[in-house]
Amino acid sequence: AIARIIAGYDHSPRDGDRPYFVTGVRSDRFERVWAETMLRWMGRSDRYQLPIELQAMRIGPLGLIGVPAEVFSVFGFAIKLRSPFRQTMVVGYANDLIGYVARPQDFADPGFGGYAAVTAPKILGLPPFEPNAGEILVRACVRALEMVAH
Known about the structure:
Strand content: 5-15%
Strand order of the largest sheet: 1-2-4
Oligomer: single chain
Number of helices: 5
Largest sheet: 3 strands, mixed
Order of helices and strands: HHEEEHEEHH
């Protein structure tokens, strides 16, 4: 996808209704900047990982888990169901922002799901997450809650 975006960039000036890109690859300056950022990203040894900070704490019977993302509700509910606490609160936008953690089916959604899964990471200069990222996040959150439960 990165190579297609860069190859599809039309460097000629825009005239009237003429599209920025004439090769059929949907792109614009935003897409090109993201693709160039991803070329550098792909050169990293940790390119398939995005370390994040989770923060778990206990206040009496309440477990709090801070996540640096906007977590789709299905994952928030999964965290609450698996939590060792009777009451659990998922706190988004905690300590950082990595965008949305979308559901696997959202990657093919032309609407908001697709925006959350594909476009939003681009806005933040990140690659899209793997479709199973939500389940990985749920497991990590539950482990963190279990550590503070005892």
